Amino acid sequence: MPGPLDLPARRSLGGEFLESVAVALILAILIRLFVLQPFYIPSGSMEPTLMPGDRIVVGKADLFGQPKPGEVVVFHYPLDPRQDFVKRLIAVGGQTVQLRNSNLYINGKLVPEPYLPPGLTFADFGPVTVPAGTYFMLGDNRNNSDDSRVWGYVKKNLVVGRVLFIYWPLSRIGVVR
Fold it and tell me: Is 97 helix (H, G, I), strand (E, B) or coil?
């Protein structure tokens, strides 16, 4: 005579569906918390790299590591951490930043910036030395960017992660450099 363990397990379709939804929801939450997060670009401070209305995916700093100079990152705004900003990381703690004659200099060396709009001219700034444990951020659209020249440095713990790619609009899908 078959015992209770010999009977095939039966689940209702409704039970399987609910289980699948629960697993998918848990995975989505874990991915958003620890791996990837979508963001919307509301302003033109990063033009032409990021345009108003672009939707981007950010790889979390905890998993992908701290960003490096030249990368585009999302961070909590130092003056109001409830707001998220997106800018290009220009320099890390210990480096000296200077903008002179519409050129960027790090530690006195000219840094090429092929991502800037052609012919862009902007005001001189610095030199300033970035404090340890912080980053200096600039928008690519230098004349229309609220960035480290205005509000100072970004502490490492405020960094959400690096921008990986644009996923919307379809005409702009691609990796962000």
Answer: strand
